[in-house]
Amino acid sequence: MKKRLVSILLSTAMVAAALSGCGGSGETATTTETKTETKADTAATDATATTDAAASADGAYAGELEIMHYSTSEESQGNGGSDGFRTVLAEWDEAHPDITLTQNVLANAEYKTQIATLAAAGDLPDVFLLQGMNTIEWAKQGLILDLTETIKASPYYADYNTAYFTPFTADDKIYGYPCLTGGTCTVVIYDKQMWKDAGYDAFPSTWDEVEKAAEYFNGQGITTVAFGNGGKWQANSCFLSTLGNRYTGPEWFSSMISKGGASFEDPEFVKALAETQRLFTQTEIFNPDYNAVTNEDAREYYISGDAAAFIGGNWDESYIAATLQESDPEKWANIGFAVLPQPADATVAPDSQNIGLGYAVAINAKLADDPAKLEAAIDLAEYITGPAFSSFVAQNYALGGLTKVADVDLSGFDQITQDFYNWSYVDTTTCEIYDSYINSAVWDILNTDLQDLMNGDKTPEEVAANAQVAYEANY
Prior knowledge:
43% of the residues lie in helices and 12% in strands. It contains 18 helices and 15 strands.
């Protein structure tokens, strides 16, 4: 049976960064395209094996199945997540000749609008990409299928990074398979040689040690850690959502997402705000203009050697590594990666850093009335988020997905890329990125107040109270 790919690319907004939740991601325009079949010539190293894996899971269903997503052909150029998504989708399609898979492919901004319109009409596609911020409401409306038991029974479950399920969970029920790739919003990039000269074999694991190191660097006329919050979102995405997790643990933010009773005024979160204020107002760790410059400006302090370390996201790491590899190979070779240091009064996850998968593959609840079609939809969802996808993006892009991949061959990548892959996906514990979830009406208030907090103009209690009012009014 001939396969159909219906590409509806409505002229705007493909995601240019690997991670959609952080303020640093961007969008560019696309063009309209319609194709009759997908390309799988960029399949993973062992394409035959992965295709066979898909075929072995083939159910008895023969008929039509629809999936709606935003991995356009334009977006897949250089975007590992979209390239991998399209590749494994084509593999599954090819392995199921009795199923006519229709792909409705929209540019990212149009996808968000169209999927919301279809949800409002109660006419969602069979399989589609679910944003975390829609999970609670659509679950309440009975639009999306409860996949809890199915996911836990998956042959891949033991290899899933279960932290990624948090935004797609409501009332302890899971409604999607997290998909595409994630990159950190909070990485400490440091110059190994500069820190060795200061007497440290690696970047310190506590803020107390960083404060001591600042005495040395300040004496050399060097900023210890460069940071830029000029866009307001950086303190939230690239600092607080990891530092906050060190005090609250992941259950707190999960409860915030699901409206489970947690509050911005909870003592643990207020402590995180207090530590943030202390670090920026009572120490000499950071560049004095941190609230005036952006992350792009601050990373230049590191590149030029005016700062010994920098805190930013995966997009900053890509820029810094590419720039130094060309302009200063010696400094490039000295790039090191670390997590945020642990505060003295924090007790949770000292090796955490924030990575999120902003979308999940979800299934229309109506498919429960058609068990054979539902089985095919589940098989599709499992395959395109499983080992085939994660292996492809690891081997081709040094990225990670929902499924952990053992013994990834990174030998084709340079040492810094290998180090960053291992730091991101192997050696650290993940937590959520605050502003990937809830909604902008809440974050607009908190982000503005964070600048005041970091200037010493608002107390932690005031910031927490304002955020809670916004949360209760808008979420």
